[in-house]
Amino acid sequence: MLGNTRSSDNPKLPLLGSSDDDISNSHGEEEERRWWRKWRKVLDVEEAKDQVLFSLPMILTNVSYYAIPLVSVMFAGHLGELQLAGATLANSWAYVTGFAFTQGLSGALETLCGQGFGAKQYRMLGIYMQTSCIISCFFSIIISFLWFYTEPILILLHQDPNISEQAGLYMKYLIPGLFAFGFLQNFLRFLQTQSIVMPLVFFSALPLAIHFGIAYSLVHWTSLGFGGAPLACSISLWISTLSLAIYILCSKKTGRTWEGFSFESFSVLLTNLKVAMPSAAMVCLEFWSFEILVFLAGLMPNSELSTSLIAMCVNTQAICYNFSYGLSAAASTRVSNELGAGTIDRAKNAMAVTLKLVVLLALIIDLALAFGHNIWASFFTDSREIVQEFASMTPFIVISIIFDAMQAILSGVARGCGWQHLAVWVNLATFYFIGMPLALLFGFKLNLYVKGLWIGLVCGLASQACSLFLITLRRKWTKMDVAMSSEIDGPCPI
């Protein structure tokens, strides 16, 4: 009987039958704990989890909003190579003269609303958003005149007359979308700084899905043809803007930060401008460098091919930047909220985690582009020659994506800390005293053409990322006095 008695039935007997398994499990659990401790030293898992949950909706949102104009370019591009060149040139011109500028202006809200939310000054978030909308509307009126005369301006800049004519027509139909885009960016920053991000996915994905139908209908079923593509973009942007505005007005989540329209927004106009103008400048200086590459490509032999190719590279870089911008928004929000609350160490930890995450993201994007560059290029054009030329550009684009992803995070930290004025000088020096001169040298003097232009840009991006990293390490982290100045003191509902 004893021989048949299981050791587990007698508490006094050792568990001989399972001792090896228990020892093995014990070792396994210990190894798992060691691995977990090592991993926690490399990455703050809880912070990373929070940032990923924040970033994924922001990535989807930014990619969706960027894709709306890009889809219009694709529809126009399939009408012919001239239309592709005109649409891509117009889209680049639209971003550097209008979309980038209004997006940069809204960056003031990442500082002011972010730190204000961290300091629990909730009422001021709505005031700052109204002020930013007033500023965006004012500058959109000015920019719309520039857009209306796009054709003669491009010809003055020695662009091909036929391409300039197409780009000019494209820009006229895109003017209504400029105002929508400015309001849209302010609404996004207002919600982002409060970590209200999940609804943004719906309010961006739905207009994008509708946009395909609108663009196809206007391009192929109406007499507008080429002009239908930018008009569809304007309509879809307004659908997005109005939908998001209704959400802010009606949602309970914004109840304590939105108390209705107020004339107090005019009283903080200068306060907002002090942050908005450097913020717009730091964004525009970078975007302008990309546009300069498009213009330089237009001066090369076979300008239609060169312009289309470099514009496709710029659009690819931009769509990848929008992936990084989700994490950049997380860094900006976390840093500004923690600085507003006075917890500087947590702000620095948040930045470190975001940098590690964005490097991983950049590597994933690079792998996807390396293996799928032909498929991606075919979305823009049916020309086999352009697709082949784009394939030869892919290794250089892969490198630029890594540096661009890193600088996106560091720029987000700069916005969260209110260091926009420093980032302006960094962007000016790295792009226009390093990147552009090298692009001219490699592209024209060494006859590397489009590849040479992009190599110069890579040098500028690398210098920018390193400079911003040094500033982040050496600069003292403090919350902005302007966000807590006497002119915003007052009762704030909690």
TrEMBL record:
Record-linked InterPro entries: MATE_euk, MATE_fam
Protein name per its UniProtKB record: Protein DETOXIFICATION
Instruction: Provide the taxonomic classification.
Output: Eukaryota, Viridiplantae, Streptophyta, Embryophyta, Tracheophyta
Quote the subcellular location field of this record.
Membrane
Give the originating organism.
Citrus unshiu (Satsuma mandarin)
Q: Which family does it belong to?
A: Belongs to the multi antimicrobial extrusion (MATE) (TC 2.A.66.1) family.
Where is it found, in Gene Ontology cellular component terms? membrane
* UniProt-annotated stretches for the region Disordered: 1-27
Q: Return the PANTHER family for the record.
A: MULTIDRUG RESISTANCE PROTEIN
